[in-house]
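Hi L.,

As promised, Por secretion system C-terminal sorting domain-containing protein:
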Amino acid sequence: MSDSSDILYVSDKKGNGLKPITSNYENAISIDIYDKQGFALIKLQRDLDKDNDFESDDKDYYYIRLDLNTITLGNKIEINN
């Protein structure tokens, strides 16, 4: 069985300007928010064959930092499996 991706979206505080911050080829697994430090750490899974399905073969995970003040993504932090 395969699943579609979970895409992260962001908007302003009033809910306007909704836009995706992750792609269809990334599955958002988890997000840990470090409010005092002003960032979030997002764990993502890559869709290796880019078929829009996340299967057991798609074992490529990484983290990415989200700046909570500017809503910009940092560099990918690779996880060696």
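DSSP finds no helices and six strands in the chain.

Thanks again for sending the construct details.

K.
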